[in-house]
Amino acid sequence: MNDELYQKGMQMRRSVLGDAHVDRAEAAKTSFDQDFQEYITQNAWGSVWTRPGLTQRERSLVTIALMTALGHEGELELHLRATKNTGASVEDVKEVLLHTAVYVGVPAVNTAIKIAKKVFSEIDNPSTNESE
Prior knowledge:
78% of the residues lie in helices and 0% in strands. The protein is an all-alpha fold. The protein is globular and about 40 Å long.
């Protein structure tokens, strides 16, 4: 493991996903998934998310489009929640999902919109959100 990339990755991961999420993920880590968690922290967060070519907002929007296209609903919800930390606005997400519908299809985006409405409602009304 590259400790420097891991530390950069953990810092970025916390910046995007929030301390509460990362703390829960770290507490749930076992010997079974420890290597995987280190891999994604070092490579996804430390090597890719820290690159200078795109802003956190842009990376966030690309990730939302990809999670929608691939049907990864749990990761989509996670990254929709992260928009409060990345600078991506609700309007940005709305435009990305509309654009994604053209290339991915209406059913995938219909599901993504349902998830986005739920997440943004919970962000706007934190007392209704039990998972934060």
